[in-house]
Amino acid sequence: MTDRRETERVIRTIPDPPTTPDAAPLHTIRILQAPVRVWDRASTHTAELMREFALLKIGTEAGTTRQVPEQVLDLVADLRARYAGTSARQAVELEDAVEAGERIHDFTYQVPDGIAEACERLRDLLDEADEFCSQGTALMTLVSPPDQREFRSWYLGEFIRQSMGEPPRPWTGPTD
After folding, report:
1. pLDDT digits over 1-55, tens only?
2. CB contact at 8 A, 36 and 102
3. Residue 49 falls within a domain, yes or no?
4. b/e map of 133-145 (b: 16 or more CB within 10 Å)?
5. Taking a C-beta distance cutoff of 8 angstroms, is the pair 50, 132 a contact?
6. 33 occurs within a structural domain
């Protein structure tokens, strides 16, 4: 039986790059002192939001609900298609850290060129989704709590910054 948490996670980690012989060189991204519990809650919240947007998108296509920011859903699908799967090792590491009761954990990713642009786009679209949620219409999912927005900005920002050659910066926000 599939673990509930695994099926509920839409954006758990940045997808792994394709592994083809002619693939572009990979860059190492280090996520230092990631707040395990905050990340877990942020993942759950994002999964809830994506499910709700998917349902509203179906209603929109049927003409029964208002327009939703479907570009968020499209981006998730695009990231999955472009990078051929999820970062299974990091997802397992996060689940293990949650189950072990860890407060912080370090993660390492190997990513291709272009990941910074994808992360910028994802960050901007998730911010738009929060704005949509804050309007209080058509959605049951609430706007992301401040700690989760701060985490998301830092996490995606680390991919952007380190892709440009900057050193990793550890998380300094709340861990609970």
Report:
1. 445 454 444 444 444 545 555 666 788 999 999 999 999 998 888 777 777 777 7
2. yes
3. yes
4. beeeeebebebbe
5. no
6. yes
List, for residues 95-143, the tens digit of each pLDDT value: 999 999 999 999 998 888 888 888 888 888 788 778 777 776 656 667 7
Position 173 in a domain: no
Is residue 171 in some structural domain? no
CB 28 within 8 A of CB 22: no
Kind plus residue range of the DSSP H or E element containing 26: strand 26-35
Give the CA angle between residues 53, 125, 148 to the nearest 5°.
Answer: 85
Check if the beta carbon of residue 19 is closer than 8 Å to that of residue 93: no
The tally of CA atoms less than 13 A away on the side-chain side of residue 118 is: 23
Structural domain boundaries enclosing 94 = 4-163
Number of domains forming the structure of the chain: 1
> In a 10 Å sphere around its CB, with 0-12 CB exposed, 13-18 middle and 19+ buried, how is residue 172 labelled?
exposed
For the stretch 148-157, contacts whose Cβ atoms lie closer than 8 Å and that sit 24 or more positions apart, written own/partner, are 148/38, 148/41, 148/42, 148/45, 151/35, 151/38, 151/39, 151/42, 152/42, 152/123, 152/126, 153/123, 155/31, 155/34, 155/39, 156/119, 156/120, 156/122, 156/123, 157/119, 157/123
